[in-house]
Amino acid sequence: MHRNRSAKIIATLGPSSSTEAIIEKLFLAGVDAFRLNFSHGTHEEHKERHEMIRRVEKKVGRPISILMDLQGPKLRIGKFKDTCVILQEGQTFVLDQQDAPGDQTRVSLPHPEIFKAVKEGDNLLIDDGKIRLRLSSVSPTRLETLVITGGPISAHKGLNVPSAALEISAMTPKDRKDLDFGLKLGVDWVALSFVQHPNDVLEAKKIIGTQAGIVSKLEKPMAIDHLEEIVRLSDAIMVARGDLGVELPPEEVPTIQKKIIRCCRQAGKPVAVATQMLDSMIKSPTPTRAEASDVATAIYDGADAVMLSAESASGSYPIESVTIMDKIISYVEKDPFYRTVQDAALPEPEATPSGAITAAARQVAHTLQASAIVTFTSTGTTSLRAARERPTVPILALTPYIEIARKLALVWGVHAVKSREVHRFTEVVEDACFFAKEAGLAKDKDKIIVTAGIPFQVAGSTNILRIAQIGEDSSKE
What we know:
The chain is α/β, with parallel strands linked by helices. β1, α1 (about 20-30) and β2 (about 35) form a beta-alpha-beta unit. The protein is elongated, with a radius of gyration of 24 Å. The two termini are about 30 Å apart. The protein has helices at about 20-30, 45-60, 110-115, 175-185, 200-210, 220-225, 225-235, 240-245, 255-265, 290-300, 310-315, 320-335, 335-345, 355-370, 380-390, 400-410, 425-440, and strands at about 10-15, 35, 65-70, 85, 90-95, 105-110, 125, 130-140, 140-150, 150-155, 160, 190, 215-220, 235-240, 270-275, 305-310, 370-375, 395-400, 415-420, 445-455, 460-470.
């Protein structure tokens, strides 16, 4: 089954979507990749969901991508003597390293790395920014603040430090245990939280290697300062607008989102937009018109994927959320202005033989009104390169490895198929014609554009292009 759209849908699994029947319905409604959120749930629960996805995959006969999302460091204040205290605007409030329960004047902050990183004048945000504090005095064990925005505050609320780079690893001991578990399960992608610096990605790469793709979640303002290098080192990017929206002024987030997508388009790396896309559908069967516009904007911007979080994990309408997201994407992609925007944002081809071949494939497909571009890939690189060009026709990715087909399920415009091992380019053309017809992408006499790298098994070696016609003898040169 071939989706009649290019952008992909990621859906988070949770209490509302933890049966095989629901997972199958979500896939049929339009989900291309499922997210396992390791901030919640036990290893056993994630294992069961992973197994259910793979059974659905076998039943529907299509590769399905699985993304594990690591929790990352969670900065939290300590506990209070009372259930809740009220902070008043203009009062002094202290955060220190004492173990004693807090009150209206102070609370414990058990994160010494924060005391080392902040300076006078910095802002601290508590409970997703509901409480805003400004530092007036800093010492190694005591932070004195002025309450800028007051309100109720209770134990163990999250704390954000927008303007400081913290000397803290993006992976906690819990994350390392979760990662080891997820890699043994066989997840396709690993989403890395709390990325501040390129070194955070390199640290994860040393552990993950080639076992899974790394999705760097951009949720810290510091990461934007190193955007190009983080994108270069990552396999994909997620615009995590939750924490990003807390730590940045709301008026800056749309511009940052567009900047990240442009950078990923230039680098040819998949990019997903996440958080609160259809938030009202947690409790409502229909989204607000503003939410529909938000999803549409991400698609017009050129995102590879959009993601559902609580909407599909714990909401009352998980199937409806996927269905409406699928409709929004499909409607946008049929708009002539969408193609105008994609063409206008098309990056210059890479100055390499592979880049030239791929750009030529896009142009030839358009000129000849071909039905599809078919890429044969052992690593996924040839297909990623084709997706970077945003062609007007579908991309059929043939790969002998199911792991690569699953990864490519997350990439714009790619319909991935596990094919046989091949040894000659004529076999690639034979398979291209067969699978293009089987997937409903082409019919007899249609033309398709076939690209591959010779020799096979060499990453990034796209160096051959052929125009083939469905039904012709592929042995003819």
